[in-house]
User: Fold this.
Amino acid sequence: METYKTMASDEKIKEQKREEFIRAYANLPLGTRQEIVAVLEPEGPVTWEAAYFEIKNKSQRGDAIIEKLVEAKLL
Assistant:
């Protein structure tokens, strides 16, 4: 069972990764934003624009995208 402190720490890390993604997105050339940044199962490929929308809105899919980007060492 996770403690409150652990859960709060996890949320803080997620928020830091969200901010890191948004900074990276802001610095992308416009044409690059149409490119695929991650592939989720079973949804399929996700572009930078779709990832931005999901991450900005703090959806479950956004959390999954962040996890994929961390695994790929992009964040």
Observations:
- Residues 52 and 58 are 10 Å apart (CA to CA).
- The chain has a mean pLDDT of 89.
